[in-house]
Amino acid sequence: MDEIDDFDRQLLALLQIDCRQTGDALAEQVGLSPASCLRRLQRLRRIGAVEREVAIVAPELLGRHITVLSLLTLRRGGRDALDRLRQKLLRLPQVERIFHVTGPADFVLTVRCASMEAYAAFTEEHFYDPAISGFESIVVLREHRPAMPDAAH
Amino acid sequence: MDEIDDFDRQLLALLQIDCRQTGDALAEQVGLSPASCLRRLQRLRRIGAVEREVAIVAPELLGRHITVLSLLTLRRGGRDALDRLRQKLLRLPQVERIFHVTGPADFVLTVRCASMEAYAAFTEEHFYDPAISGFESIVVLREHRPAMPDAAH
DNA sequence: GATTAATCGCAAGATTTTCGCGCAGGGTGA
DNA sequence: TCACCCTGCGCGAAAATCTTGCGATTAATC
């Protein structure tokens, strides 16, 4: 039913790098016909193996020049407060990812802002919350991303 | 030249959510013709505003069931050693992101492995390195992702 | 060894993207 | 103010790509 075979795994690996490859390109790399590759891709999308296909946008061009890892420590309280906080954080455009983690901190967020000043304002607005007992900020000096192997002509 | 106007920003916002929309769909949302949208998209790719377009794959289906944040502290040493380490980390399939950060740690990685056991093996193989003086692991219990607003079918 | 189910490749048809063209709006300088 | 250029628009044709029906092949089951 939802079985993933080696062809599927190959396709997923390729699509994780570049999801805009044509059926022909995929076919050549995995050794199937273009039609079969695309049929498999349809299925992978349908069963949720491919959750989404998204563009990665240069953050500076959206005016988000700095990245910070925010470690939030929550006040022990009801699940409701926690859910509410989570929902709120999910909706903030500055919040890129939310990890619920083990250890002294409860959440680790990756946050992107226009400037340090904007991050300061962000923390003042959102981290001084009844559900949050404290936070720590780790500033990202630079992010290293795996390059795309073959920036098409 | 490389100017980003409001149409571009709208397109980028839409493509960040779903980069597989057709020219027609984009056109309807931003109020331009399909051809113009696609021409802008070509340009956004060319100037690097759209860095990549990737599929987000359900990690379990790739056999990567757990996520860990690894905080690496480096031994003070030459730039060469640091560069070499960075290059090495970039190539590991388990390493999803690499942040070079301020604070006591030098690097924060997001690492995906099949199991805790696999993570342990991973650390033994890669974190006991002359360039690394120590590391801390924060296990991700759960990740909350912003949902895609309208899974078209 | 027959039957069933899955999936392949092929190729026609539908959809989407690319691109040349002519035109409108906005600066610029005489 | 008036040419003039430059940019970006929409239109529509051509090219590229994706989808799907079909018969054939293969693997598994009984």
UniProtKB/TrEMBL annotation, chains A, B:
| Keyword entries, A-Z | DNA-binding, Transcription, Transcription regulation
Q: Which organism is it from?
A: Roseobacter sinensis
Q: What is this protein called?
A: Lrp/AsnC family transcriptional regulator
Q: Which residue ranges does the record assign to the HTH asnC-type domain? A: 4-65
> Which domain of life does this protein belong to?
Bacteria
Report whether DNA-binding shows up as a keyword of the record: yes
